[in-house]
Amino acid sequence: AVRGPAGSALPGIAPSNAYRCNDGGYALIAGNGDSIFRRLMTLIGRDDLAADPALADNAGRVARVAELDEVIGAWTAQRSVDEVWLLRLPKYRTVLSLATQGAKPQ
Description:
Elements lengths: L15 E5 L5 E5 L3 H10 L3 H4 L7 H6 L1 H12 L4 H8 L6 E3 L9
């Protein structure tokens, strides 16, 4: 199979997308591994989704990708790219910033 254009998302891998921040920038967030997803949901204050058995694996998350994109997008919309970047370090390591990735020391 050959994938066609999909915008910023990775079809069949969820969640993984570019989410708009309140400063107009975008944060690329990929919480598509099972344990990474749980940590991401905890980071954004959604322990309910972290513990939801229906979201325990990628197939369940793909089935609810629109909901997850909405939840993550609502969270990033309240923060700047820099805030999202700072929140990822050092504990979670699930969020990368497109706008600042090259400018931030690792």
